[in-house]
Amino acid sequence: LQGVDIVHVMIPFPAGVKVAQMARKRGIPVTAGFHCQAENFTAHLFNAMHSKIINRLVYKHFYRNLYRHVNAIHYPTQFIRDIFEKTIKRKTNGYVISNGVNEQYIKKEIARIPPYDEKFNILFIGRLSKEKSHHLLIKAVAKSKYRDQIRLIFAGQGPRKRQIIEKISKLRLEPAIIQFFPREELIDTINQCDLYVHPSTAEIEAIACLEAIKCGLVPVISDSEKSATNAFALSDKNLFKHHCAQDLADRIDYWIEHPAEKEKASRDYLDYASNFAQDVCLKQMRDMLQTYTREENYTPKKIYYYKDELNDDFANHGITAKKIPANYRYIRRCPFYNTVQFLLYNLVARPVAKVTNKAIYKQKIVNHLTVDKKEIKGAFIYANHTLDIGDVYTPSLLFKQKNNIIAGPEAFSIFGIKTIVAMLGALPLPSTLKGARRFLEAIKHKIEKGETITIYPEAHIWPYYTKIRNFKDASFGYPVTMNCPTICVTNTFVPHKQRYKLITHVDGPFYPDLNLDRKASRTKLRDQIYETMLNRSMEVEQYEKNRYIKLD
Fold it and tell me: Whole-model pTM above 0.85?
Protein backbone atom coordinates (compact mmCIF):
# COMPACT_ATOMS: atom_id res chain seq x y z
CA LEU A 1 0.00 0.00 0.00
CA GLN A 2 3.00 2.32 -0.09
CA GLY A 3 2.28 5.39 -2.20
CA VAL A 4 -1.45 4.60 -2.43
CA ASP A 5 -3.74 7.67 -2.23
CA ILE A 6 -7.02 5.82 -1.69
CA VAL A 7 -8.30 2.24 -1.55
CA HIS A 8 -11.60 1.27 -3.19
CA VAL A 9 -13.02 -2.12 -2.19
CA MET A 10 -15.41 -3.71 -4.68
CA ILE A 11 -17.05 -6.47 -2.61
CA PRO A 12 -17.27 -7.12 1.17
CA PHE A 13 -15.43 -10.44 1.09
CA PRO A 14 -12.32 -11.40 3.15
CA ALA A 15 -9.66 -10.05 0.77
CA GLY A 16 -11.36 -6.66 0.48
CA VAL A 17 -12.04 -6.48 4.23
CA LYS A 18 -8.39 -7.26 5.02
CA VAL A 19 -7.06 -4.63 2.62
CA ALA A 20 -9.48 -2.06 4.08
CA GLN A 21 -8.19 -2.84 7.59
CA MET A 22 -4.58 -2.48 6.47
CA ALA A 23 -5.34 0.84 4.77
CA ARG A 24 -7.16 2.25 7.79
CA LYS A 25 -4.22 1.40 10.08
CA ARG A 26 -1.95 3.35 7.74
CA GLY A 27 -4.32 6.31 7.64
CA ILE A 28 -5.22 5.74 3.97
CA PRO A 29 -8.81 6.69 3.01
CA VAL A 30 -11.05 3.77 2.03
CA THR A 31 -14.20 3.77 -0.09
CA ALA A 32 -16.25 0.73 -1.07
CA GLY A 33 -18.67 -0.28 -3.79
CA PHE A 34 -21.94 -2.04 -3.05
CA HIS A 35 -22.08 -4.65 -5.80
CA CYS A 36 -23.27 -7.74 -3.91
CA GLN A 37 -26.86 -8.27 -2.83
CA ALA A 38 -27.50 -10.63 0.06
CA GLU A 39 -29.42 -12.83 -2.38
CA ASN A 40 -26.32 -13.22 -4.56
CA PHE A 41 -24.72 -14.78 -1.50
CA THR A 42 -27.54 -16.81 0.05
CA ALA A 43 -28.69 -18.31 -3.27
CA HIS A 44 -25.48 -20.33 -3.43
CA LEU A 45 -24.29 -20.99 0.11
CA PHE A 46 -27.51 -21.57 2.02
CA ASN A 47 -30.11 -22.11 -0.71
CA ALA A 48 -31.99 -19.49 1.30
CA MET A 49 -32.42 -16.71 -1.23
CA HIS A 50 -36.00 -16.05 -0.08
CA SER A 51 -35.25 -16.06 3.66
CA LYS A 52 -35.68 -12.52 4.97
CA ILE A 53 -33.96 -13.37 8.26
CA ILE A 54 -30.83 -14.82 6.66
CA ASN A 55 -30.60 -12.03 4.06
CA ARG A 56 -30.89 -9.47 6.86
CA LEU A 57 -28.06 -11.17 8.75
CA VAL A 58 -25.89 -11.12 5.62
CA TYR A 59 -26.42 -7.36 5.15
CA LYS A 60 -25.59 -6.71 8.81
CA HIS A 61 -22.47 -8.85 8.45
CA PHE A 62 -21.41 -6.80 5.42
CA TYR A 63 -21.94 -3.60 7.43
CA ARG A 64 -20.04 -4.75 10.52
CA ASN A 65 -17.08 -6.13 8.58
CA LEU A 66 -16.60 -3.42 5.98
CA TYR A 67 -19.11 -0.69 5.27
CA ARG A 68 -19.18 0.95 8.71
CA HIS A 69 -15.40 1.46 8.50
CA VAL A 70 -15.15 3.19 5.11
CA ASN A 71 -15.18 6.88 4.22
CA ALA A 72 -17.91 6.54 1.59
CA ILE A 73 -20.01 3.90 -0.19
CA HIS A 74 -20.73 3.76 -3.92
CA TYR A 75 -24.24 2.45 -4.63
CA PRO A 76 -25.07 1.66 -8.29
CA THR A 77 -28.76 2.43 -7.63
CA GLN A 78 -30.93 4.20 -5.07
CA PHE A 79 -32.84 0.92 -4.85
CA ILE A 80 -29.98 -1.00 -3.23
CA ARG A 81 -29.06 1.94 -1.00
CA ASP A 82 -32.62 2.05 0.37
CA ILE A 83 -32.65 -1.71 1.00
CA PHE A 84 -29.29 -1.68 2.78
CA GLU A 85 -29.99 1.37 4.95
CA LYS A 86 -33.44 0.07 5.87
CA THR A 87 -31.94 -3.27 6.90
CA ILE A 88 -29.12 -1.86 9.04
CA LYS A 89 -31.44 0.90 10.34
CA ARG A 90 -29.06 3.79 9.78
CA LYS A 91 -27.98 6.25 7.11
CA THR A 92 -24.65 5.85 5.35
CA ASN A 93 -22.34 8.29 3.60
CA GLY A 94 -23.39 7.05 0.18
CA TYR A 95 -23.14 8.14 -3.46
CA VAL A 96 -25.61 6.77 -6.00
CA ILE A 97 -23.71 6.45 -9.28
CA SER A 98 -24.63 4.09 -12.10
CA ASN A 99 -21.92 1.72 -13.28
CA GLY A 100 -22.62 3.09 -16.75
CA VAL A 101 -22.61 1.53 -20.21
CA ASN A 102 -19.51 1.46 -22.40
CA GLU A 103 -19.69 3.72 -25.46
CA GLN A 104 -18.98 0.74 -27.75
CA TYR A 105 -22.53 -0.53 -27.19
CA ILE A 106 -24.47 1.03 -30.08
CA LYS A 107 -27.27 0.09 -32.44
CA LYS A 108 -25.86 -1.31 -35.69
CA GLU A 109 -27.34 -2.08 -39.06
CA ILE A 110 -25.97 -5.58 -39.31
CA ALA A 111 -26.94 -8.46 -41.57
CA ARG A 112 -28.14 -11.46 -39.62
CA ILE A 113 -26.14 -14.62 -40.00
CA PRO A 114 -27.20 -18.21 -39.17
CA PRO A 115 -28.60 -19.19 -36.78
CA TYR A 116 -29.87 -15.67 -35.91
CA ASP A 117 -31.69 -15.31 -39.25
CA GLU A 118 -34.01 -18.25 -38.62
CA LYS A 119 -36.07 -17.39 -35.54
CA PHE A 120 -37.37 -14.60 -33.27
CA ASN A 121 -34.35 -14.25 -30.99
CA ILE A 122 -34.84 -13.55 -27.28
CA LEU A 123 -31.68 -12.59 -25.42
CA PHE A 124 -30.57 -12.77 -21.79
CA ILE A 125 -27.15 -11.46 -20.69
CA GLY A 126 -25.61 -12.36 -17.37
CA ARG A 127 -24.35 -15.02 -15.03
CA LEU A 128 -26.10 -18.38 -15.23
CA SER A 129 -27.01 -18.61 -11.56
CA LYS A 130 -30.10 -19.35 -9.51
CA GLU A 131 -31.14 -15.79 -8.68
CA LYS A 132 -31.32 -14.92 -12.40
CA SER A 133 -34.47 -17.12 -12.71
CA HIS A 134 -33.71 -18.50 -16.19
CA HIS A 135 -36.29 -21.25 -15.62
CA LEU A 136 -39.01 -18.58 -15.67
CA LEU A 137 -38.00 -17.41 -19.14
CA ILE A 138 -37.85 -20.99 -20.43
CA LYS A 139 -41.32 -21.79 -19.06
CA ALA A 140 -42.70 -18.59 -20.60
CA VAL A 141 -41.39 -19.49 -24.06
CA ALA A 142 -42.98 -22.94 -23.67
CA LYS A 143 -46.34 -21.22 -23.00
CA SER A 144 -46.01 -18.76 -25.90
CA LYS A 145 -48.25 -19.03 -28.96
CA TYR A 146 -45.06 -18.68 -31.00
CA ARG A 147 -42.90 -21.19 -29.12
CA ASP A 148 -41.74 -22.89 -32.33
CA GLN A 149 -40.62 -19.54 -33.78
CA ILE A 150 -38.49 -18.51 -30.80
CA ARG A 151 -34.82 -19.15 -30.08
CA LEU A 152 -33.27 -18.32 -26.70
CA ILE A 153 -29.77 -16.89 -26.40
CA PHE A 154 -28.10 -16.96 -22.98
CA ALA A 155 -24.98 -14.80 -23.18
CA GLY A 156 -23.04 -15.82 -20.12
CA GLN A 157 -21.63 -18.65 -18.08
CA GLY A 158 -22.21 -20.09 -14.64
CA PRO A 159 -23.27 -23.09 -12.53
CA ARG A 160 -26.82 -23.39 -13.93
CA LYS A 161 -25.84 -24.10 -17.53
CA ARG A 162 -26.60 -27.83 -17.34
CA GLN A 163 -30.02 -27.25 -15.72
CA ILE A 164 -30.90 -24.72 -18.44
CA ILE A 165 -30.05 -27.19 -21.21
CA GLU A 166 -32.04 -29.97 -19.50
CA LYS A 167 -35.07 -27.70 -18.97
CA ILE A 168 -35.13 -26.61 -22.62
CA SER A 169 -34.83 -30.23 -23.77
CA LYS A 170 -37.57 -31.40 -21.41
CA LEU A 171 -40.01 -28.76 -22.74
CA ARG A 172 -39.02 -29.58 -26.33
CA LEU A 173 -38.03 -26.07 -27.25
CA GLU A 174 -35.58 -24.96 -29.93
CA PRO A 175 -32.02 -25.62 -28.61
CA ALA A 176 -30.64 -22.43 -27.08
CA ILE A 177 -27.37 -20.68 -27.80
CA ILE A 178 -25.49 -20.66 -24.48
CA GLN A 179 -22.02 -19.17 -24.41
CA PHE A 180 -19.87 -16.34 -23.14
CA PHE A 181 -19.24 -13.66 -25.79
CA PRO A 182 -16.27 -11.25 -25.87
CA ARG A 183 -17.45 -7.63 -25.99
CA GLU A 184 -17.29 -7.10 -29.76
CA GLU A 185 -19.08 -10.40 -30.45
CA LEU A 186 -21.67 -9.61 -27.78
CA ILE A 187 -22.47 -6.25 -29.40
CA ASP A 188 -22.98 -7.98 -32.76
CA THR A 189 -25.13 -10.65 -31.08
CA ILE A 190 -27.35 -8.05 -29.38
CA ASN A 191 -27.90 -6.34 -32.73
CA GLN A 192 -29.11 -9.62 -34.24
CA CYS A 193 -31.71 -10.26 -31.52
CA ASP A 194 -35.35 -9.14 -31.35
CA LEU A 195 -36.18 -8.85 -27.65
CA TYR A 196 -34.35 -8.74 -24.33
CA VAL A 197 -35.84 -10.49 -21.26
CA HIS A 198 -34.50 -9.98 -17.74
CA PRO A 199 -36.26 -12.39 -15.32
CA SER A 200 -33.92 -12.01 -12.32
CA THR A 201 -35.24 -12.29 -8.78
CA ALA A 202 -32.44 -10.13 -7.37
CA GLU A 203 -30.43 -7.47 -9.17
CA ILE A 204 -28.57 -4.36 -8.02
CA GLU A 205 -28.57 -2.60 -11.38
CA ALA A 206 -28.20 -5.01 -14.35
CA ILE A 207 -25.81 -3.19 -16.64
CA ALA A 208 -26.41 -6.10 -19.04
CA CYS A 209 -29.98 -4.88 -19.52
CA LEU A 210 -28.72 -1.36 -20.22
CA GLU A 211 -26.22 -2.73 -22.73
CA ALA A 212 -29.05 -4.42 -24.62
CA ILE A 213 -31.18 -1.26 -24.47
CA LYS A 214 -28.29 0.86 -25.77
CA CYS A 215 -28.09 -1.42 -28.80
CA GLY A 216 -31.78 -0.87 -29.54
CA LEU A 217 -33.43 -3.90 -27.92
CA VAL A 218 -36.75 -3.50 -26.12
CA PRO A 219 -36.64 -5.12 -22.65
CA VAL A 220 -39.21 -7.17 -20.74
CA ILE A 221 -38.28 -7.09 -17.05
CA SER A 222 -39.40 -8.90 -13.90
CA ASP A 223 -41.19 -6.72 -11.36
CA SER A 224 -39.44 -8.52 -8.47
CA GLU A 225 -39.26 -6.31 -5.38
CA LYS A 226 -35.63 -7.39 -4.95
CA SER A 227 -34.57 -6.17 -8.38
CA ALA A 228 -33.56 -2.64 -9.34
CA THR A 229 -33.83 -3.45 -13.04
CA ASN A 230 -37.59 -2.90 -13.18
CA ALA A 231 -36.87 0.83 -12.86
CA PHE A 232 -35.83 0.64 -16.54
CA ALA A 233 -39.39 -0.20 -17.64
CA LEU A 234 -40.87 2.71 -19.62
CA SER A 235 -44.35 1.14 -19.79
CA ASP A 236 -46.31 -1.74 -18.28
CA LYS A 237 -45.63 -3.69 -21.49
CA ASN A 238 -41.97 -3.80 -20.40
CA LEU A 239 -42.82 -5.44 -17.07
CA PHE A 240 -44.14 -8.87 -16.14
CA LYS A 241 -45.30 -10.32 -12.84
CA HIS A 242 -42.46 -12.14 -11.18
CA HIS A 243 -42.94 -15.90 -10.77
CA CYS A 244 -45.69 -15.79 -13.43
CA ALA A 245 -44.50 -17.51 -16.60
CA GLN A 246 -47.85 -16.93 -18.31
CA ASP A 247 -47.64 -13.17 -17.81
CA LEU A 248 -44.15 -13.17 -19.33
CA ALA A 249 -45.41 -15.30 -22.23
CA ASP A 250 -48.17 -12.75 -22.86
CA ARG A 251 -45.61 -9.91 -22.97
CA ILE A 252 -43.43 -11.85 -25.42
CA ASP A 253 -46.43 -12.56 -27.65
CA TYR A 254 -47.45 -8.89 -27.53
CA TRP A 255 -44.09 -7.67 -28.84
CA ILE A 256 -44.02 -10.36 -31.53
CA GLU A 257 -47.48 -9.28 -32.71
CA HIS A 258 -46.76 -5.52 -32.62
CA PRO A 259 -43.51 -4.93 -34.57
CA ALA A 260 -44.30 -1.26 -35.31
CA GLU A 261 -44.84 -0.49 -31.62
CA LYS A 262 -41.65 -2.39 -30.81
CA GLU A 263 -39.73 -0.22 -33.27
CA LYS A 264 -41.07 2.96 -31.61
CA ALA A 265 -40.22 1.59 -28.15
CA SER A 266 -36.71 0.84 -29.40
CA ARG A 267 -36.21 4.50 -30.36
CA ASP A 268 -37.53 5.63 -26.96
CA TYR A 269 -35.09 3.32 -25.20
CA LEU A 270 -32.16 4.57 -27.25
CA ASP A 271 -32.90 8.09 -25.96
CA TYR A 272 -33.32 6.77 -22.41
CA ALA A 273 -29.99 4.90 -22.48
CA SER A 274 -28.06 8.15 -23.00
CA ASN A 275 -28.57 8.83 -19.26
CA PHE A 276 -26.20 5.98 -18.46
CA ALA A 277 -23.18 6.95 -20.58
CA GLN A 278 -20.09 5.50 -18.93
CA ASP A 279 -17.96 8.64 -19.30
CA VAL A 280 -20.50 10.63 -17.24
CA CYS A 281 -20.60 7.92 -14.56
CA LEU A 282 -16.81 7.68 -14.46
CA LYS A 283 -16.55 11.43 -13.89
CA GLN A 284 -18.94 11.11 -10.93
CA MET A 285 -16.84 8.26 -9.53
CA ARG A 286 -13.65 10.25 -10.00
CA ASP A 287 -15.18 13.22 -8.16
CA MET A 288 -16.20 10.94 -5.28
CA LEU A 289 -12.73 9.44 -4.96
CA GLN A 290 -11.05 12.85 -5.16
CA THR A 291 -13.29 14.11 -2.34
CA TYR A 292 -11.75 11.54 0.00
CA THR A 293 -8.13 12.03 -1.06
CA ARG A 294 -8.07 15.41 0.66
CA GLU A 295 -5.57 15.75 3.49
CA GLU A 296 -8.13 15.66 6.31
CA ASN A 297 -9.12 12.11 5.32
CA TYR A 298 -5.60 10.73 5.89
CA THR A 299 -5.94 9.50 9.45
CA PRO A 300 -6.27 6.19 11.30
CA LYS A 301 -9.02 7.81 13.37
CA LYS A 302 -12.63 6.95 12.70
CA ILE A 303 -14.16 9.60 10.44
CA TYR A 304 -17.76 10.79 10.59
CA TYR A 305 -19.09 12.79 7.65
CA TYR A 306 -22.00 15.09 8.37
CA LYS A 307 -24.20 17.53 6.52
CA ASP A 308 -26.65 18.73 9.15
CA GLU A 309 -25.26 19.63 12.57
CA LEU A 310 -28.73 19.68 14.11
CA ASN A 311 -30.18 16.43 12.76
CA ASP A 312 -27.38 13.98 11.85
CA ASP A 313 -27.23 11.14 14.37
CA PHE A 314 -24.24 8.83 14.89
CA ALA A 315 -25.52 6.82 17.85
CA ASN A 316 -25.74 3.62 15.72
CA HIS A 317 -28.24 1.92 18.03
CA GLY A 318 -30.32 0.52 15.19
CA ILE A 319 -33.42 0.62 17.44
CA THR A 320 -36.84 1.11 15.89
CA ALA A 321 -38.68 3.64 18.06
CA LYS A 322 -42.15 2.74 19.27
CA LYS A 323 -44.84 5.28 20.11
CA ILE A 324 -45.26 6.17 23.76
CA PRO A 325 -48.87 5.40 24.82
CA ALA A 326 -51.03 8.41 25.66
CA ASN A 327 -51.72 6.90 29.10
CA TYR A 328 -48.06 6.29 29.95
CA ARG A 329 -47.56 6.69 33.72
CA TYR A 330 -44.83 9.25 34.28
CA ILE A 331 -45.68 9.54 37.99
CA ARG A 332 -45.72 6.31 40.02
CA ARG A 333 -47.44 6.26 43.41
CA CYS A 334 -47.12 2.54 44.18
CA PRO A 335 -45.06 2.15 47.42
CA PHE A 336 -43.50 -1.13 46.27
CA TYR A 337 -42.46 0.36 42.90
CA ASN A 338 -40.98 3.45 44.55
CA THR A 339 -39.06 1.34 47.10
CA VAL A 340 -37.53 -0.84 44.39
CA GLN A 341 -36.74 2.28 42.37
CA PHE A 342 -34.98 3.92 45.34
CA LEU A 343 -32.86 0.83 46.03
CA LEU A 344 -32.01 0.27 42.36
CA TYR A 345 -31.04 3.90 41.78
CA ASN A 346 -29.04 4.53 44.96
CA LEU A 347 -27.54 1.13 45.79
CA VAL A 348 -26.90 -0.19 42.28
CA ALA A 349 -27.01 2.45 39.54
CA ARG A 350 -25.07 5.24 41.22
CA PRO A 351 -22.15 3.10 42.45
CA VAL A 352 -21.95 1.34 39.08
CA ALA A 353 -22.00 4.70 37.28
CA LYS A 354 -19.19 6.08 39.40
CA VAL A 355 -16.96 3.01 39.01
CA THR A 356 -17.69 2.67 35.28
CA ASN A 357 -16.99 6.31 34.42
CA LYS A 358 -13.77 6.20 36.42
CA ALA A 359 -12.62 2.93 34.87
CA ILE A 360 -13.54 3.64 31.26
CA TYR A 361 -13.20 7.41 30.96
CA LYS A 362 -10.90 8.31 33.91
CA GLN A 363 -13.58 10.88 34.71
CA LYS A 364 -12.91 13.90 36.87
CA ILE A 365 -15.80 16.22 37.78
CA VAL A 366 -14.78 19.88 38.21
CA ASN A 367 -17.22 22.00 40.22
CA HIS A 368 -17.46 25.64 39.08
CA LEU A 369 -20.81 26.31 40.81
CA THR A 370 -21.22 29.76 42.35
CA VAL A 371 -23.31 28.34 45.21
CA ASP A 372 -23.04 25.32 47.47
CA LYS A 373 -24.22 22.11 45.80
CA LYS A 374 -26.71 21.57 48.64
CA GLU A 375 -28.54 24.73 47.61
CA ILE A 376 -29.38 23.31 44.17
CA LYS A 377 -32.93 22.01 44.38
CA GLY A 378 -35.27 21.39 41.47
CA ALA A 379 -32.94 22.29 38.59
CA PHE A 380 -32.53 21.55 34.89
CA ILE A 381 -29.15 20.25 33.70
CA TYR A 382 -28.05 20.95 30.12
CA ALA A 383 -25.11 18.94 28.76
CA ASN A 384 -23.32 18.33 25.48
CA HIS A 385 -24.06 14.89 23.98
CA THR A 386 -20.81 13.05 23.23
CA LEU A 387 -20.97 9.68 24.98
CA ASP A 388 -23.35 6.77 24.96
CA ILE A 389 -22.92 5.25 28.41
CA GLY A 390 -21.10 8.18 30.00
CA ASP A 391 -23.87 10.67 29.22
CA VAL A 392 -26.38 8.41 30.94
CA TYR A 393 -24.28 7.97 34.07
CA THR A 394 -22.72 11.41 34.64
CA PRO A 395 -25.82 13.45 35.69
CA SER A 396 -26.57 11.00 38.51
CA LEU A 397 -23.15 11.76 40.04
CA LEU A 398 -23.49 15.55 40.21
CA PHE A 399 -26.00 16.07 43.03
CA LYS A 400 -27.35 14.13 45.97
CA GLN A 401 -30.96 14.14 44.77
CA LYS A 402 -32.27 11.86 42.06
CA ASN A 403 -31.67 12.84 38.43
CA ASN A 404 -34.07 12.29 35.53
CA ILE A 405 -33.17 12.33 31.83
CA ILE A 406 -35.54 13.38 29.07
CA ALA A 407 -35.08 10.69 26.42
CA GLY A 408 -36.43 9.77 23.02
CA PRO A 409 -38.86 6.85 22.65
CA GLU A 410 -35.97 4.62 21.46
CA ALA A 411 -34.89 4.16 25.09
CA PHE A 412 -38.29 2.61 25.82
CA SER A 413 -38.39 0.43 22.70
CA ILE A 414 -35.96 -2.24 23.88
CA PHE A 415 -37.84 -5.37 24.88
CA GLY A 416 -37.62 -6.34 28.54
CA ILE A 417 -35.94 -3.27 30.07
CA LYS A 418 -38.59 -0.56 29.74
CA THR A 419 -39.46 -0.64 33.47
CA ILE A 420 -35.80 -0.60 34.53
CA VAL A 421 -35.09 2.37 32.24
CA ALA A 422 -37.99 4.25 33.86
CA MET A 423 -36.79 3.38 37.37
CA LEU A 424 -33.37 4.80 36.54
CA GLY A 425 -34.96 8.16 35.75
CA ALA A 426 -35.64 8.21 32.01
CA LEU A 427 -38.63 10.31 30.95
CA PRO A 428 -39.79 9.48 27.40
CA LEU A 429 -40.86 12.31 25.13
CA PRO A 430 -44.60 11.89 24.48
CA SER A 431 -46.03 10.79 21.14
CA THR A 432 -49.51 12.31 21.59
CA LEU A 433 -51.10 15.55 22.79
CA LYS A 434 -52.71 13.78 25.75
CA GLY A 435 -49.36 12.28 26.62
CA ALA A 436 -47.76 15.74 26.43
CA ARG A 437 -50.00 17.00 29.24
CA ARG A 438 -49.03 14.07 31.46
CA PHE A 439 -45.37 14.62 30.57
CA LEU A 440 -45.45 18.30 31.60
CA GLU A 441 -47.22 17.40 34.84
CA ALA A 442 -44.44 14.91 35.60
CA ILE A 443 -41.73 17.51 34.87
CA LYS A 444 -43.37 19.96 37.25
CA HIS A 445 -43.87 17.25 39.89
CA LYS A 446 -40.21 16.22 39.86
CA ILE A 447 -38.91 19.80 39.96
CA GLU A 448 -41.17 20.54 42.95
CA LYS A 449 -39.76 17.44 44.69
CA GLY A 450 -36.29 18.96 44.28
CA GLU A 451 -35.05 16.46 41.71
CA THR A 452 -32.91 17.40 38.70
CA ILE A 453 -33.86 16.86 35.06
CA THR A 454 -31.17 16.47 32.40
CA ILE A 455 -31.65 17.61 28.81
CA TYR A 456 -29.25 17.18 25.90
CA PRO A 457 -30.09 20.17 23.69
CA GLU A 458 -27.87 18.86 20.88
CA ALA A 459 -30.39 15.97 20.73
CA HIS A 460 -28.17 13.40 18.96
CA ILE A 461 -25.03 11.61 20.12
CA TRP A 462 -21.81 12.48 18.27
CA PRO A 463 -19.25 10.13 19.86
CA TYR A 464 -16.23 11.93 21.31
CA TYR A 465 -17.01 15.19 19.53
CA THR A 466 -14.71 17.89 20.88
CA LYS A 467 -16.67 20.97 19.82
CA ILE A 468 -20.08 22.30 20.75
CA ARG A 469 -22.83 21.94 18.17
CA ASN A 470 -25.38 24.65 17.62
CA PHE A 471 -28.71 23.90 19.27
CA LYS A 472 -32.17 25.41 19.46
CA ASP A 473 -33.74 27.21 22.40
CA ALA A 474 -36.99 25.19 22.50
CA SER A 475 -36.05 23.03 25.51
CA PHE A 476 -35.16 26.12 27.56
CA GLY A 477 -38.86 26.84 27.86
CA TYR A 478 -39.03 24.43 30.82
CA PRO A 479 -36.89 26.42 33.30
CA VAL A 480 -38.42 29.70 32.07
CA THR A 481 -41.96 28.43 32.69
CA MET A 482 -41.08 26.98 36.10
CA ASN A 483 -38.66 29.76 37.10
CA CYS A 484 -36.00 27.35 38.31
CA PRO A 485 -32.20 27.23 38.04
CA THR A 486 -30.26 25.63 35.19
CA ILE A 487 -26.89 23.92 35.39
CA CYS A 488 -24.44 23.71 32.49
CA VAL A 489 -22.40 20.50 32.10
CA THR A 490 -19.59 20.31 29.54
CA ASN A 491 -17.73 17.08 28.87
CA THR A 492 -14.22 17.52 27.47
CA PHE A 493 -11.56 14.98 26.49
CA VAL A 494 -8.13 15.95 27.78
CA PRO A 495 -5.00 14.11 26.52
CA HIS A 496 -3.79 11.62 29.14
CA LYS A 497 -1.13 8.88 28.75
CA GLN A 498 -1.50 8.59 24.95
CA ARG A 499 -5.29 8.48 25.30
CA TYR A 500 -7.64 10.79 27.15
CA LYS A 501 -9.48 11.38 30.38
CA LEU A 502 -12.97 12.82 30.68
CA ILE A 503 -13.13 16.19 32.42
CA THR A 504 -16.70 17.16 33.29
CA HIS A 505 -17.18 20.88 34.00
CA VAL A 506 -20.21 21.89 36.08
CA ASP A 507 -21.20 25.58 35.81
CA GLY A 508 -24.05 27.67 37.13
CA PRO A 509 -26.62 28.13 38.31
CA PHE A 510 -28.21 30.29 35.63
CA TYR A 511 -31.66 31.77 36.09
CA PRO A 512 -34.37 32.93 33.67
CA ASP A 513 -34.57 36.69 33.20
CA LEU A 514 -38.09 37.50 34.40
CA ASN A 515 -37.82 41.06 33.06
CA LEU A 516 -38.02 39.68 29.51
CA ASP A 517 -40.93 38.07 27.72
CA ARG A 518 -40.95 34.26 27.62
CA LYS A 519 -39.32 33.88 24.19
CA ALA A 520 -36.58 36.42 24.87
CA SER A 521 -35.87 34.90 28.28
CA ARG A 522 -35.64 31.43 26.72
CA THR A 523 -33.20 32.68 24.06
CA LYS A 524 -31.03 34.48 26.61
CA LEU A 525 -30.82 31.38 28.79
CA ARG A 526 -29.90 29.24 25.79
CA ASP A 527 -27.14 31.68 24.80
CA GLN A 528 -25.70 31.65 28.33
CA ILE A 529 -25.52 27.85 28.36
CA TYR A 530 -24.11 27.66 24.81
CA GLU A 531 -21.39 30.25 25.47
CA THR A 532 -20.40 28.51 28.71
CA MET A 533 -20.09 25.15 26.93
CA LEU A 534 -18.13 26.78 24.12
CA ASN A 535 -15.66 28.43 26.50
CA ARG A 536 -15.10 25.23 28.49
CA SER A 537 -14.54 23.20 25.31
CA MET A 538 -11.84 25.64 24.16
CA GLU A 539 -9.89 25.87 27.44
CA VAL A 540 -7.51 23.08 26.38
CA GLU A 541 -6.66 21.33 23.14
CA GLN A 542 -8.79 18.22 23.34
CA TYR A 543 -7.91 14.64 22.44
CA GLU A 544 -9.36 13.81 19.01
CA LYS A 545 -10.49 10.18 19.06
CA ASN A 546 -12.87 10.60 16.12
CA ARG A 547 -12.70 13.10 13.29
CA TYR A 548 -15.78 14.93 12.01
CA ILE A 549 -15.77 16.37 8.49
CA LYS A 550 -18.58 18.44 7.03
CA LEU A 551 -19.65 17.54 3.51
CA ASP A 552 -20.24 20.33 1.00
Answer: no
Q: How many structural domains comprise the chain? A: 3
120-157 pLDDT tens trace? 999 999 999 988 999 999 999 999 999 999 999 999 99
Which range marks the domain in which residue 349 is found?
Answer: 335-545
- Tell me the backbone φ, ψ of residue 503, rounded to 5 degrees: -105, 120
Residue type, 6: I
Any domain includes 84: yes
For residue 498, give every residue at least 6 positions away whose Cβ sits within 8 Å of its Cβ, in sequence order, or none: none
- Residue 437: CB partners within 8 Å, gap ≥ 6? none
| Residue 115: cis peptide before it, omega within 30 degrees of 0 | yes
- CA 483/CA 471 separation, integer angstroms: 21
Q: Is 316 left (phi over 0), alpha (psi -120 to 50) or beta?
A: left
Residues 6+ apart with CB under 8 A from 396: 345, 349, 350, 353, 402, 403, 425
In a domain, 344, yes or no: yes
Specify the CATH number for the domain of residue 133: 3.40.50.2000
Q: Alpha carbon of 108 to those of 191, 238, 255, 484: distances in Å?
A: 6, 22, 20, 80
Decide if 80 contacts 62 (C-beta within 8 A).
Answer: no
Residue-level pLDDT at 497: 87
Instruction: Select from 266, 263, 224 the least CA-distant residue to 242.
Output: 224
- CA 247 to chain CA centroid, nearest Å: 35
Beta carbons of 342 and 448 less than 8 angstroms apart: no
- Indicate left, alpha or beta for 497 from its phi (over 0: left) and psi (-120 to 50: alpha): left
CB 288 within 8 A of CB 97: yes
Cα distances (Å, whole numbers) of residue 507 to 148, 440, 452, 532: 86, 26, 15, 8
Q: Is residue 285 part of a domain?
A: yes
Whether 521 and 400 map to the same domain: the answer is yes
On whether residue 321 sits in a domain, the answer given is no
- What is the length of the chain? 552
Q: What share of the chain is helix, strand, coil (3-state, %, to 5)?
A: 45, 15, 40
Q: Cα–Cα distance between 253 and 156 in angstroms, integer? A: 25
Taking CB atoms within 8 Å and a gap of at least 24, the contacts of 440-448 are 441/330, 441/331, 442/330, 442/331, 443/478, 443/482, 444/482, 445/330, 445/331, 446/378, 446/404, 447/378, 447/379, 447/380, 447/482, 447/484, 448/378
439 by DSSP, 3-state: which?
Answer: helix
Is the model's pLDDT at 440 over the cut of 90? Answer: yes
Does 319 have pLDDT greater than 70?
no
Reply yes or no on whether the pLDDT at 316 is more than 70: no
Q: Is 438 in contact with 330 (CB distance < 8 Å)?
A: yes
**Tens digit of each residue's pLDDT (9 = 90 or more) over 178-207:** 999 999 999 999 999 999 999 999 888 888
- Same domain flag for 380 and 506: yes
Residue 167 zone, left/alpha/beta (φ > 0; ψ -120 to 50; rest): alpha
